[in-house]
Amino acid sequence: MLLSVRSIEVNYGQVRAVRGVSLEVGNAQVVTLIGSNGAGKSTTLRAISGLNRPSKGEIWFDGARIDQLPPVEIVKRGIAHVPEGRHVFANLTVLQNLYTGGYLSRNKAKLNAILEQIYQYFPILAQRRDQRANTLSGGEQQMLAIGRMMMSSPRLILLDEPSLGLSPKMMKEISRIILTIREGGTPVVLVEQNAEMALKLANHGYVMETGKISLDGPAEELRGNDHVRKAYLGI
Ligand code: ATP
User: Fold this and answer.
1) 42 burial type by CB count under 10 A (0-12 exposed, 13-18 middle, 19+ buried)
2) What is the Cα–Cα distance from 101 to 95, expressed in whole angstroms?
3) pLDDT per residue over 133-169, tens digit each?
4) Model-level pTM?
5) Which segments constitute the ABC transporter domain (predicted)?
């Protein structure tokens, strides 16, 4: 497995946000973590990228233990995290924002090749390359946040609630990109409250409830599961 999260616990003071979570991500897989508000999904992602340190358990990436490493070291190993709420630099242009994602690479030719690919994925970013990020719509900013992350040629992508606040049309666009990333072979961990969208995109799903994984299985199977249908798909 490329990523293996083993029985981690994460606390915020007295709040036990993540209580013994294990999950695995293989190559070229989209793995989704679904669950209601406050279940601990974002905290799990933050533990993987080193922003929250687990008090128990281990995290392994590509054969090495990473849960004691600082976030910058984890980024260098190829884990890219797009947090909830699309944090783009409002006063920088689209192009400048994209370049900030490639800051670890000195290979300009390679960066330009990735940039061209991002423009192919998101033609709207090419059209708006010289516009400031704060003039983009919410969906376009989400595309920019994803594009910026792609500039680092990550080996594993952590996406936190990419559909939040987007119109159905924009959600379709984001889904299309996640599928394109999957076809390109880069694995994705997708945290979503929109379980329907997430289970359509993913190979495997984990259901998280009050800090624990309550259920996991092939995404297709979870879509047919009675509990998932009632609690998360509104059926
Ligand atoms: P959401 O979709 O609402 O972000 P989530 O499943 O991602 O939900 P987390 O954000 O991981 O859940 O939160 C898990 C628990 O930890 C919640 O009870 C939340 O209130 C608490 N929590 C999250 N961040 C902090 C923090 N910085 N300080 C204290 N408690 C926190």
Assistant:
1) buried
2) 10
3) 999 998 899 999 999 999 999 999 999 999 888 888 8
4) 0.93
5) 3-235
